[in-house]
Design a protein that fits this description.
It is built from seven helices and ten strands. The chain is of the alpha+beta class. The strands form three sheets. Strands 5-6-10-7-9-8 form a six-stranded mixed beta sheet. The chain has a two-stranded antiparallel sheet with strand order 1-4. A two-stranded antiparallel ribbon has the order 2-3.
Amino acid sequence: MSEICLLCKERKVYQIKSHLTPAGITENTYGERNKEVIYTIDPKNKNVDKYYGREYPQEETTEIKDEPNARRGIFCKVCETDFGTYESAVQNKLNEFINSIGHTAGIKRTGFYIKYSNLDFHPNVLITFFLSIVWRQCIEQILDEMDNPISEEELEKLRVLVLLKISTPINEIIKQDVIQSPKMSIFTTYDTKIQPTWANPHPKETNPQIFFIGPIVLLYWVNQNVTDNFNNLTLIDKGLLDDNISLKTSRIGIIHPNQWTKISNKMAQNLVRDFMR
């Protein structure tokens, strides 16, 4: 492992555990931190593993394992602190909002009859937070020697953009023009604490590319051309590609739990096919 930070590529790494998909988001579905149970599927090595948080009440094994979605000594202290600044600004508030869907959250509809809600965040704060997760999930894929859905050239552009944005204080970034590229959008469902979920990119290379982030699915546009047969490949309604619910509008799409389950199951089917090859 390199001794130089993977983000800034300048400073020495800080020997602390970093969550590549922030734990504050995934605990909304995996369970309370240190009490979670996480399944890891590795199609390449034909392996399915199970991780228990150290306080999880189970008796299956006492084996000590590394926590999935986490690595030690990959970012410097400055970059780690900058990640944390945007995570603190978004995670808890966003989880609280997601948990209010179906209760107190206001819901509207687009012209394509897609449900959505407005989020009380400046677009640049949301975009910076999610850009950092997309980049870190890609890095995790590389570290685990698995397929990375974004090309090397695109990933390097993303690294530079993430570094620029997370190093910008929040009180300054909200004064800047709204980030227009890359285009991203997110959607969720009702009662995410009991819904199936993932914390990794979709194995199918599509445009937009799909990233699963616990209670959220993120669509990341590499270019403006939608992959042919996108709906059949992913079971994601094309109405969710509407520019009116992109992150630059601070909106989140909302789908029915049945549709959420179908999308998650489609993801599982792709992993199973890769596993059985």
